[in-house]
User: What shape does this take?
Amino acid sequence: MAYLSKFSFKFYQIIFLILPATLLGEAADYNMSVGVTEVSREIFDLHMLIFWVCVWIGVVVFGIMFWSLWKYRKSKGAVAADFDDNFWLEIGWTVAATLILVVIAVPSTQVMVKAYDDAEGEINIMVTGHQWKWHYKYLEDDISFFSNLSTDPEQIYNKMPKGEFYLKEVDEPLVIPINKRIRFLITGNDVIHSWWVPDFAVKQDAIPGFINTAWTNVPEPGIYRGNCTELCGIRHAFMPVVVRAVEQEEYDAWVVEKVMLAEQEKLLTSKEWTTEELFERGEGFYQTNCVACHQVNGQGIPPVFPALEGSQITLNDAPRQIEILMEGVQGAAMASYAGYSEVDIAAVITYTRQAWSNGENGDGVIVTPQDIVAYKNKTEL
Amino acid sequence: MSTVVETHDHGHHGPAKGLTRWLYTTNHKDIGTLYLWFSCLMLFIGGSMAMVIRAELFQPGLQIVEPEFFNQMTTNHGLIMVFGVIMPAFVGLANWMLPMQIGAPDMALPRLNNLSFWLLPMAFGILISTLFMPEGGPNFGWTFYAPLSTTYAPSTVNYFIFSVHIMGISSILGSINIITTIFNMRAPGMTLMKMPLFVWSWLITAYLLIAVMPVLAGVVTMMLMDINFGTSFFNAGGGGDPVLFQHVFWFFGHPEVYIMILPAFGIASHIIETFSRKPIFGYTSMVYAMSSIAILSFVVWAHHMFTVGMPLAGELFFMYSTMLIAIPTGVKVFNWIATMYRGSITFETPMLFAIAFVALFTIGGFSGLMLAIVPADFQYHDTYFVVAHFHYVLVPGSLFGIIAGVYYWLPKWTGNMYDETLGQLHFWLTFISVNLTFFPMHFVGLAGMPRRYPDYALQFADFNMVISVGAFLFGITQLLLVFIVIKSIRAGKKAKPEVWEGAGELGLEWTLESPAPYHTFTVQPQVK
Amino acid sequence: MFAFGWALVPIYDVFCEITGLNGKVTGPSYLSETSQDMTVHREVLIQFMTHNNESMPWTFKSEKVQMRIKTGSQQEAMFVFENTTEKEMTGQVIPSVSPGRGAEFFHKTECFCFEQQTLAAGERIELPVRFIVDPALPKEIGSLSLGYTLFDITDQLKRNQELAKL
Assistant: This one.
């Protein structure tokens, strides 16, 4: 509840200072992010230019209006003049408006052309919007992974205090090196999403069946956070973008580590797993990937998201459960998780078959990574 | 026989009694009243949805509603406000005022008029009923982008499509009626360039409606076929294109935006000239400005979709064409101010709303200009900055125009003056709360809060709280409007025929007695 | 205007084909004579991205992720399709070229995306894309990215066949 009192304090502050918003704190709270890239800075300058043009037009226009309202009020005995047009005045302000627009259009076009640079990228990353997570695939290296919201659902449902990066944190951020030309190839898996990182001034729609491109070149290391900005369904607000820009050496090390981890993951598949190990690993996977829809307590949100606790599939039909995880459910929100490792899939299946009351009421069948491999082999016949 | 003769004694019929008066009416005043009350009801339904949205956004975290229901609220709020409030209210004002302003006894097609009103409750009955179905109502945003609204939509989308079809038919029939009335029933001597500006604004609006409502009908029919009959207009897998949906939708959607503002231009012009006691400045340029806005509205649609990946040339074209719209719009604002200049101004409630309309609509215009700049739009697009922009043009723009019109013509309708003190109170409360609600949206939008989010990062918390408080105040304040209107229907200082000082020379409606008799201008007046 | 709304569909297709809007590329196309005569060839990077839409379970991969080629020369890239399920399925690949204005310079003489692919359970095939990049490709375009999205249209086909029977 501590944050509540903080809000009410701020609230009064704002009520009294609503217009001089500049007094409130950092510009990032009420103005566009300057960003870190060349393009984002130019866009910011452009934004401020148009803003000030509008402010000055506003000052002049509203100034004349309020002055007229004041000066020619009837209570002061103003008598209406009798004129209803003035040819040159009308031509004058039409021309003036046109000139102002030209002044704005020129720099806008220049920035535009720069943002639309189609040169080759040094690193190419395919970004795919899924309901409701991002998938990143590095074209040069054999790396690909999903990036999920990592904020604890307890925070979202106000059962625990919210962290500093509430709704702006992911389990695995996109990692890019600094001072490299990065080209993003953006597409969508199901509905239209939109990939936005304000600090790069990159916002591109992720449209199923189409590839859009965007590029950036980040000069400073740091963590940059963004959002999905095209309504994509229930969890539209819960699929943030986080990009970690690092020095080249760190990036290289990350690539090596990432490739190695993938190898290890393959080894893990052949290992003999105990129920407890699977349960533990499955719980972690479930917290990241499943709770959003099926909820922590496995009750789901019927009718859209079915309950897992007490479901005939999780209780008594392990083969069908494997099939659902691998193939998804047609026409429903359940997607295929075949892109994840065998270990993760086996673990999460085992977890949902053991958790809540399912362990007591179900047939207790454990699914191991080998079962998933067997499923894959069977279907590859 | 004798009774028949008696009822004809006074030369005209009064309205029928009871419910059938409203069900069967072909009287333009009755139908206007129906439209206005319908729109008022919808304002409160759509408004309560906004209250749900703001209550959820009062603090970060999910407190009151689940995201699924939140999406239904944003979608239905948008649809109801656009199709159920702003458009019917303007049609209601047109029904009441157009015949009286052009000296006609009624609308040209009175039975069609009845039909086009009674279609609306059906349409919205269907739309709102979906909220009570197990799968819930439409949840894909009022712009219903495919494939979220086709492949991924709840099955209630079919009701939504049907409802949009009915709304479209209603609007088209209404427009046909308005155009026919304006062209055929003007009093002798009233040439096109002598028509009141409200009539002009509606003539242009009616043409826009006839031009674009069928396109909307087309796009929802394509959706219907994609969903139920296996076509692939918007499904990439079958060779279709989701972006095509956006092009067709916005080809309807942008002219629609001007449909919702042009009649307000007309109303504001009348009010400003009345209370400045000075004829409108630059009548001719006002007409040309409205016409050019209408024409330009057909070539700017893709500025709603700068981030879909259009080629550079396309982006630049739509940026320039959008910027062009600022010119006629600017001309209108300058004209209004020039009308005030050297007038003799009083500040009754309609004038206050009209002044606020000019000022706040202009702010919405400024943010519109900013949004037109493509590179900057990459940062603004789909954030609260956009929400702030279109609420500034629709609430203190269109809605203030409507409220101003209601106050302005209310004494003519009821025969009683409204309570001026309460009117002023209503204005100031509305003015303060509207800015409290929508101005901070610019800040959160620029700072990076995307729209249609049921939950948000902590940095946006303070402003969202202010916005919510403003929204609640705005919502409650509108109850005052209903009270004032009902009070004026029941009693009040009797209004003179000209109602406002000197208005008698400004339009034919002010030559009629107050309240306007059930049948007016049965003998056409002469316009010099 | 209702008819016009519908006419927007073919108008849009034609418009996209001319301008390359959205990187739409449809049937096979060949080099125009003038660009065949162009002798200035340069290197350009071609990237292939494959993506399975939604829950399409097939394996769908390009053999090479990127290749550096010369404009004006016939090229070939191989793609692997594998139906990993136990039932017969039909897929359709939807191509997309980025940047969109590069689409008109990317001439495909053969592509698996021209037709639907029906694979029996467990079947695996390799199919080529044969293409020529127009020497007239503007030099600002440093690389062409070709996205291929594989859609599962089995159910849709079935439904259409049922509808056709009615």
About this structure: Strands of chain C lie at 43-52, 59-62, 66-70, 74-82, 89-98, 106-110, 117-119, 124-133, 143-152. Helices of chain C lie at 2-19, 33-37, 154-165. Chain C has a mean pLDDT of 79. The longest helix of chain C spans residues 2-19.
